[in-house]
Every structure is written in structure tokens, then in C-alpha cells.
Amino acid sequence: MLLSLRLGVACLMSCGLLMQAHPGQSDSSDARLRGSFRKPADAGWTFVHLEGSPSTIGFQHGYLLSAEIEDAKRAIELSATHEVEHSWQDLRTVAETIFWPKIPQEYREELQGIADGLKARGSKLDVIDLVAMNGWMEFPYYYDDLKRRAGTPVKSAVPEHCSAFVATGSYTKDGRIVIGHNNWTDYLTGTRWDIIFDIVPSSGRHLIMDGVPGLIHSADDFGINDAGIMITETTIGSFHGFDEKGVPEFVRARKAMQYSGSIDDFARIMEDGNNGGYANTWLVGDRKTNEIGRLELGLKYVTLERTKDGYFVGSNFPINPKLVAEETDFPINDPNTPNLVRRSRWNQLMAENKGKIDVETGKKFETDHYDMITKEIDPNERTLCGHIDRSSRGMKPWQGPYGPAGTAEAKVSDSAMAEKMSFVAGSGHPCGVEFHAKEFLKAHPEYAWQAGALEDLKANPWIVVSAAQAGQ
Known about the structure:
By secondary structure, the chain is of the alpha+beta class. It has a single domain, classed as Penicillin V Acylase, Chain A (4-Layer Sandwich), CATH 3.60.60.20. The chain has helices spanning about 10-15, 55-65, 65-85, 90-100, 105-120, 125-135, 140-150, 185-190, 250-260, 265-270, 320-325, 340-350, 360-365, 415-420, 435-445, and strands spanning about 20, 35-40, 45-50, 165-170, 180-185, 195-200, 205-210, 225, 230-235, 280-285, 290-295, 300-305, 310-315, 370, 375, 405-415, 420-425, 465. Strands 2-3-6-7-8-9-10-11-12 form a nine-stranded mixed β-sheet, covered by helices on one side. A seven-stranded mixed β-sheet has the order 1-18-17-16-5-4-13. Strands 14-15 form a two-stranded antiparallel ribbon. A hairpin with a 4-residue loop joins strand 11 (about 290-295) and strand 12.
């Protein structure tokens, strides 16, 4: 998994549909569903409100999204087993023996609750299927590490995702925080990254995040909690390293989003029990203090930087020289490496827009198609809005693998929106470029193994999503 044409106009922010929640009657009398609901899909997003104890939140999740979870499992299984070349049963075994013992009771109860909700709707998926789904992006780290320890030469197959930024102080229009992220992934799973989760747990913070049906964490890790913490990340490119005794990344990511009240809290939770799985450079903001931070979380090397006047960007490049040398295979000295080309574009945009960055400019950043190498508008693997599928549209080839992959959705928020537990979200390709599965599969029969599960990625408008308010 690797990973402007028509950009959203300024009025989309003010004219976009506000997906606010209104508790309503469920189609079941089960008391565990009380207060929960889902909204009809809008511009590619389905809004789901969950509240209560861990097991109750889980039951609501499984019950309300049963069909979507079944569908997501099919896509995740196909993607994950193809990537690591192991069967789903093999992945279930790793989930049960390596991941499950390290999951705290709170999240065990939530995962079991999802399984119970699914069962109530006739699904045969069990809790270990759900653990495997939640840990799907950690499997490449685990299997790469096994090969390395066995002395087998291996070039990291770890997925690389996303273009993200966070800015504050003199870089933003109002001096407060602006944060944005787009999600690069294979379209097989990316088309399932279409849920807005609004969760009010019995302990911890109220949170809102994007996510995949069946997952207790965001997985591309864009979210906001009511303590004012704003979170996103990008994967550390070509990373290797995994600690079987550590806590799964999906557990730490969810815990940090649910329990962090400061940047220090966030860093502490993410570092506690770090297993190296799905290693990321985390971008965090605290709207209470107007401070932002960048946590580069390797397995052996961890670096936290912070500022109240500046910016941090991410495009899957490592930073700490020791981490680069000892924990990655990243070609740090090749300026034409796509991740470093994107880094140059980020720095250029930050300099050009200093003092002007707001949600609207953030939307433009996340749908940017300017290639710093060709000096053209040319959506590809080197542009902030990634398009790995470009050969299906008759565009000129580029060096490297191609496939049905690229940016699958994007989000932007600022401090004012975060106060309202809100952000703007663009499902599919908010840049305006669409992906058509049938066309791609006809041109590339080598991807026939995805037939029946690979879906079109539409160009949806940006909309505003907002957490439910009590009494509405």
C-alpha cells in the first residue's frame, strides 16, 4: 500500500452540509443501542454516533455497521494477505498470539462488543477477525522483522501513507492552529475509509475521527478530542523494526486520541509499550495552548519537537539521522525520492502562504498536484495529492511501480472548528480526479485478483462534519 484540477471553492466551507447528529429510534429494542445512531451517507461519508461503556460502544458499532464491516473485512483480507503473502488464518494467529495478549481490558471489551453486535445481525465474524482487521497495517512490520532476524535479505515492504501538515502562530491567518491530512492507500481498502466516528466513551474524552468500519482507531489517524487535542500523522518511509512484546499501534493510537489532554500526554501514551508497528511521524496540536508538536516515533529512536510559532509537515520522510541509518532503508540522499520531493513542495507552500494559512488554503494543500521535478500540474507519486493509478488514464509513465492506489480522502480543521469538534472532509478524490475500477482492471489484468472488490473512487465535494451535541 503506497500510497490541481478542480479545487473546492471557498463557499464549500460555508455551504457544505453540516452532518450534525440527532439521536433517533433504532430498529432494535436492545438497550445497548440507546443513544447511538447512523446518518445516511453524504458525499461519500457515513456519520456514526456511539456512546457508553466499552462493550456498549462496541455493540453499537458492530450492529449499526454490520454490512459495512463485512465488506471492509473482505477488502482488508484481500489486501493484507496479498501484501504479506500469508493467509488470513496466519494473520488471525498473529492477531491472537501477538496482538490480543497486549490489548487492555477496555479495548478487549470494545472489540468483543463489536463481535456481539455483528452476531446480533447474523454475521459470523469473531473477535479475532476484528483484531486482525485492526492490526492489518502492522503485519508487514511483523513479517519483515521475522525475515530480518532469520537473515533473509529484505527491502522494507512497509506501506507509506499520506501528506499532512500542522501550523500555528505567524504561519496561520488567525495565529491559531490549522491541521490537515490526506490518506494515501490502495483503493481496495481506501474506498472503505468512509466513516465519521463520533464517540462519547464512559471514560476519557469525547472524540471525532475518520475511520474504517470495524476498526476502533482511525487507522490514518486524523481526529480531535474535546480536550483540544488535534492529531494526525504520516508513516515513516521504508521503516523496519518490530517488538513482539510491545503494545499494538492501533491500541496506543486509540488510547492517545481518547485520553490525551496535552502534547505531553499524547507522546507518553504513544511511547508506552511501543512495538514499532505502523511507525509514524505524528503531528499534534493543542488548541488550548496554541502549541504544535512533531513526534517521530521509531522503535529505538523517538524525537519530539514543539513550537508555538511555526509548522511541521509530513510526507513519509524520516528525520532523526540515527533513525534514518539504523531503522530505515530510506534513500535520504536522493532528492528525487518522491517523499522528499513532496517535502520540498510542503516547505515551498508554507513559505508562500506564511500568515495566510486557514482551512481553505489547507484544502488546496491537500489537493495539490504540482510536481516539483517537472514544474507542472501533473498528479503522480511526487505530488501532495497522490495518484499511483495514473497509467490507467493514458498519462506518461514514471519510474516505479504503479497500481490502483493514491489519495483516498482528506481532512482539514483549525482551532475554531476543533472547539466545536468539527472538521472539513473530502471523500474519494476531493481534488476532482476520479478513479474507475473497470477501466483500470481492463488496462491492467495483473490486478484481476482485486476484481469484484475494487471500487470506483469518486470526486466528492468537501463537507463539514461535526460531533453530535447533547439534546439535539
